């Protein structure tokens, strides 16, 4: 009887340890995915980046952000009010944005954003992320964000990579939130 109690305690402990291990892996998996993306970006591992990024979702996200941003800018510009060509420009804008984003969102560009914390003119990764800081956090049980901020520009808002859960332990980058100042041309 005494031996049966010990066996029961061992089973309870084993089940508890197994539960904590699975929960730890479940909760820690987005941090691991974000780290994998950072390492792949720093080393220029294009194949790993392609596995971690849902490129169609990232492209659609950027297209909608840019469309809203440019539409607002055109509507607020006093020089465009009453301009007959402004409406024509608004009609062409979605096509221009689609072509621009489709050509821009590549593994090299994602790598540069992850290591430099900015939309870089030279989209070749510098191989080091010492110029940026990373802030991690859940946005929901199946969504995780990584704010990437360039230390050289402390006044700018962070570029944010948003990951979605795919299965129990797998995550993919599905959105890049761009602050408006990151999209302005450098002086």
Structure, explained:
With 187 residues, the chain is of the alpha+beta class. The chain has one domain (2-183). Helices cover 57% and strands 18% of the residues. It is built from 6 helices and 4 strands; from the N terminus they run H-H-H-H-H-E-E-E-E-H. The chain has helices at residues 2-43, 46-52, 55-76, 84-104, 107-116, 180-183; strands at 132-140, 143-150, 159-166, 170-177. Strands 1-2-3-4 form a 4-stranded antiparallel sheet. Strand 3 (159-166) and strand 4 (170-177) form a beta hairpin. Helix 1 (2-43) packs across helix 2 (46-52), helix 1 (2-43) crosses helix 5 (107-116) and helix 3 runs antiparallel to helix 4. It starts with a helix and ends with a helix. 19% of the residues are buried. The model has no long low-confidence stretch (mean pLDDT 83).
> What is the ordering of alpha helices and beta strands?
HHHHHEEEEH
What's the total helix number? 6
Helix content: 55-70%
Mean of all residue-level pLDDT scores: 83
What general outline do the C-alpha atoms trace?
elongated
Strand order of the largest sheet: 1-2-3-4
- Our count of domains comes out at 1
Overall number of strands: 4
Uncertain regions spanning at least 5 consecutive residues: none
């Amino acid at each position: 009887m005494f031996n049966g109690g010990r066996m029961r305690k061992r089973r309870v402990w084993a089940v508890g340890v197994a539960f904590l291990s699975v929960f730890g892996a479940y909760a820690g998996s987005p941090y691991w995915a974000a780290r994998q993306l950072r390492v792949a970006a720093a080393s220029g591992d294009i194949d790993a980046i392609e596995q971690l990024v849902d490129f169609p979702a990232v492209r659609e996200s950027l297209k909608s952000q840019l469309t809203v941003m440019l539409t607002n800018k055109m509507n607020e510009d006093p020089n465009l009010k009453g301009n007959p060509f402004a409406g024509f420009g608004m009609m062409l804008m979605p096509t221009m944005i689609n072509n621009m984003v489709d050509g821009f969102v590549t593994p090299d560009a994602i790598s540069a954003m992850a290591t430099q914390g900015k939309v870089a003119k030279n989209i070749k990764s510098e191989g080091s992320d010492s110029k940026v800081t990373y802030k991690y956090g859940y946005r929901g049980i199946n969504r995780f964000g990584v704010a990437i901020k360039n230390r050289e520009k402390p006044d700018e808002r962070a570029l944010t990579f948003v990951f979605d859960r795919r299965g129990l332990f797998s995550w993919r980058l599905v959105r890049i939130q761009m602050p408006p100042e990151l999209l302005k041309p450098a002086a």
